[in-house]
Amino acid sequence: MTSSTSILIAMANLTRGKRHQLDRLSIELRKAGLISKGGRGPYAASISPREVGNMLIAYMGTDGGSGGVKAVTENSPLIPKNGESFFGFGPINFGDALEEIFTDTNLASKIEKVSVCRTYPAAWIFYKVGNKSICLEFQPEEGYVEDAWSEVETDSKIIRPLMRVDCTIDGDVISQLAFSLIERDPQEEADYLRKKIQEREEMRRHGKAKN
Predict the structure, then answer these.
(1) Which long-range contacts does 18-25 make (Cβ < 8 Å, 24+ apart)?
(2) Which pLDDT score is estimated for 140?
(3) For residues 75 and 95, what is the distance between their CA atoms, to the nearest angstrom?
(4) 49-60 and 68-75 helices cross at what angle (nearest 10)?
(5) What is the structure's pLDDT at 42?
């Protein structure tokens, strides 16, 4: 299984995120038991599809500095609006959906983008079934109360402010992260990451870089 260090490097390269911020988030998640503990470098702990999903939620749900545990614990349990099914898995929660995506590279290749709201608990997965694009919205089980500005809880429901800030990751990045989880020898992994870095640098030079 791929190490957590390799995935952090891949996430930093593919999302153009700052490595030191991802490192801080990973330390926070390790302390909370949301990703595996281990050493550094060649002794780094292996990372599972579920843990990659947790890292992605922490990264998308914060500004990259702190608050990763809160982002994961609030967003991972979100359920599909109206009990909609995610592919053939039924109405699974957001964390489970990400785990399935990072377990199956074929499924990951069908993802168009993933969004997480940083203002209140909410998430979206956009994917294709045949020629049809589908948006699956995830929300708290208790639902929302609409409000213009507030962000507090009332009557066991979360108030949803009028204004919100989202973070979106392109489906190509999701697919590449899923592929990074496939076990291969260190040289093959290094060659793969080097190739992806070169591809993204080429895209940036031509003004076509994706998030």
Answers:
(1) 18/64, 21/64, 21/65, 22/55, 22/59, 22/64, 24/64, 24/65, 24/66, 25/55, 25/58, 25/59, 25/62, 25/64, 25/66, 25/68
(2) 93
(3) 8
(4) 110
(5) 47
> What are the b/e assignments for 56-65, b being 16+ CB within 10 Å?
bbbbbbbebe
First to last CA, the chain: 26
Residues 6+ apart with CB under 8 A from 170: 112, 113, 210, 211
Per-block mean pLDDT, blocks of 10 residues, the chain (211 long):
73 79 89 77 68 94 85 96 90 95 93 95 94 94 65 59 86 91 61 65 61 39
**What is the value of pTM for the model shown?**
0.77
Residue with tokens 């791929």: 2
Q: Which position has the token pair 């801080």?
A: 24
